[in-house]
Amino acid sequence: MKKPQVEAHYQTTLSAGSHWSFKLRRGLLLQLTDETGGANVGMLLYNADNLLERYNAPDTLKCQHTFHLTQGHCLYSDMGHVLASVVEDSVGAHETICGNSTRNSVRRTYGERSYQQDRNSWYQNGHDAFLVELAKYGLERRDLPASINWFSACAIKEEGDIALRESPSPKGSQVSLRMDMDCIVVLHTCPHPMNLQSVYPESQVRITLADAPPMSMDDLCANHCEENRRGFENNRLYHLGSA
Questions:
Q1: Are 169 and 33 in contact (CB under 8 A)?
Q2: Is the separation of the CB atoms in 181 and 30 below 8 Å?
Q3: Mean pLDDT across 86-101
Q4: Distance CA 123, CA 115 (A)
Q5: Is the dihedral of CA 44, 45, 49, 52 positive or negative?
């Protein structure tokens, strides 16, 4: 049976090397679609009411006993709250340990292009893309936590090295997040830092905002593990106090 389309409140498309941010309210669905295949989407999340609280990669991985993110996993803050939940995922693995490309790494891999000379065909990097968006909220370099790289997955080799998976995400791949707190969400579509292709990736990612289905007793994310149930209880108390 064909999966029903969500009724979108808003849609936009990011080309490669772009960045975007928005305040997303609790109860929204954020759907990312890889329209060309082989995309990489960097993401940061911050509590919209307390920007000192933000996504925490170590807690997210260790409390759910995982190395990759996928459907059923929650994205934790550094204060034990569930910022968002992965309610749908057609890829199966997304990484959150490798960080961002930088100006120097992009120059070494793809060559030199500047906005002044090449305009929209220049080569942006993930680190600077995040900083541009963070400045809109009074945040800076010291406010950069470890980020998520959607549509990218890594493997650990026998000798301990980390390698980007060889097969990119297929065209049409999707991941959908339910926002469980009001968050500032920051995205970029710059190359993964371990992408060693000689040509700057050309990708296109669609962002869709819709209403998320309400949580139920059999919610996949809440029931994924005992830690997630505690995380949602932390959320309940947080929202009780802020009501």
A1: no
A2: no
A3: 96
A4: 8
A5: negative
Q: Which residues does 44 contact at the CB level (< 8 Å), separation at least 6?
A: 54, 55, 130, 134, 144, 145, 147, 148, 185, 186
pTM: 0.94
Q: Is the pLDDT of residue 177 over 90?
A: yes
DSSP string, 118-136: HGGGS---HHHHHHHHHGG
The single residue listed with the structure tokens 């710059």 is 190
DSSP 228: H
Predicted confidence (pLDDT) at residue 223 exceeds the cutoff of 60: yes
Domain boundary assignment for the chain: 8-242
Distance, C-alpha 152 to centroid of its chain: 10
Distance CA 18, CA 132 (A): 11
Pair 109, 126: CB distance under 8 Å:
no
CB 178 within 8 A of CB 29: yes
pLDDT tens-digit series, residues 186-209: 999 999 999 988 899 999 999 999
| Continuous segment of H or E residues that includes residue 41 | strand 41-47
Q: Is the pLDDT of residue 173 over 60?
A: yes
Of all helices (H) and strands (E), which one includes residue 106? helix 103-110
